[in-house]
Amino acid sequence: MGTIAAAAGRMYSYGEIQRDCDANADEQLMLRYQRGDEEAFRILYGRYKGRLFRFILRLTHDATTTEEVFQETWLGVISSRTRYRPEARFSTYLFGIAHNRVSDHWRKQRRSPRGVADGTDEPSDAEGETSRIGSPHATTMNSYLGDALLRALYELPDAQREAFLMKAEGGLSIEEISQLTGVGRETAKSRLRYAMERLRSALEAWR
Amino acid sequence: MSDPDADLLAAYERAHRPLPDAALDAAILRAAARTVRLRALQRRLCTAAAVAGVGAILWIGIDRDQKRTGESAQDFGMLEGRSRAFLLRRTADAGIGPGSMSFVQIERSSEGR
Predict the structure, then answer these.
(1) How far is Cα A46 from Cα A77, in angstroms, rounded to an integer?
(2) Which chain A residues are within 8 Å of B36, Cβ to Cβ?
(3) Which tens digits make up the pLDDT trace of A197-207?
(4) pTM of the model
(5) Complex ipTM, two decimals?
(6) Whole-angstrom Cα distance, residue A107 to residue A154?
(7) Backbone phi and psi for residue A114, each to the nearest 5 degrees, phi listed first
(8) CA–CA gap between residue B1 and residue B4 (Å, rounded)
(9) What pLDDT, in 10s, does the model give residues A34-88?
(10) A-chain residues within 8 Å CB-CB of B40?
(11) Which of B16, B30, B47 to probe by mutation at the A interface, max A CB count within 10 Å?
(12) End-to-end CA gap in chain B
C-alpha cells in the first residue's frame, strides 16, 4: 500500500476525484465562465463545437447558414452567460438556443421545415456529404454505411431529423427533445421512432 | 437498460464528422474572451470609482476636522464659544486672570474689538 502510494506520488480520495469531476462538469464550466474564467469556456467550446456544428449543418444543410447559426448560437451563450442558471443540463441549454436560431432562420427564409410544409425547397449538398458516397475517399465498409446513413438522414422530414440529431449529437432524452421543440412527449417519441426506423431500414437495405 | 438504437447511433458516429473551421473557432473564442475582459475592466473601474468616492468623502471629513482643530488651538478669538475658555487656560499659566487689565486687552484684541 505504502509502495503504491509512494509510486503514485500521492493518493487521491474518492471525494477529491468526485470534486474534480464536478468542477469539470459542463454546468460548472459554464458557471466558471460566468465568473470570468476564459479557460472554462474554451473547454466547453471544445466539447461541443463538433456536435453543435453537425447538428446545425445537418438540419439546415447549407454551409453558409450553418456558420452563421453556429456563430449566433455561441454568441447567444456568451451574451446571456450572466443570466445562466444550471437548472437543466448545459447540452439542453445549448441545443435549445441552436433550435431557436434555426427556427428564426427558417422564419426569415419564409420556409417551414420540410415534412411539415410542402417540401419544395431542395437543400443543397452543404458539405459534399451525399456526393462523397462512392468516392475514392469512402473506401471502407464503415464509410459506406455512414454515407448511406447520412443520405437517409437528409431524406427525413425536418422534425424527425431534428429529433434524431438532438439525440445523436446532443445526447438529449425524449423529455428534453419534447421540451425544446415545444411538442408533447408522445409526439417527440414518435418522431424519434419514425426517424430511427427509416434510418435502420436504409441501413438494412444497404447491407 | 441498454439503448435499443445503440447500433444505429454507433453507425452514425462512424459517419463523416465535419468540424467548424479554425477561423470560426478563433472568432468565437475571441468574442468569449473579449466579453469577459470587458466585464472585468468594468468591474475594476467600478471598484476604483467606489474607492475614489469613499476616499474623497474621508478626505473632506478629515480636512474639515483638521481645520477646526487648528483654529481652536491657534486662533482662539475666532471660534464660537471656546475663545474665553481657551484664553483663560493660556493666561492662567502666566498668572493673568480675568480681572487683570492685560486679560481684558488680550480678550478684546482676540475678538477684534
Answers:
(1) 14
(2) 33, 36-38, 41
(3) 999 998 887 76
(4) 0.68
(5) 0.74
(6) 20
(7) -60, 145
(8) 9
(9) 999 999 999 999 999 999 999 999 999 999 999 999 999 999 999 999 899 988 8
(10) 36
(11) B16
(12) 105
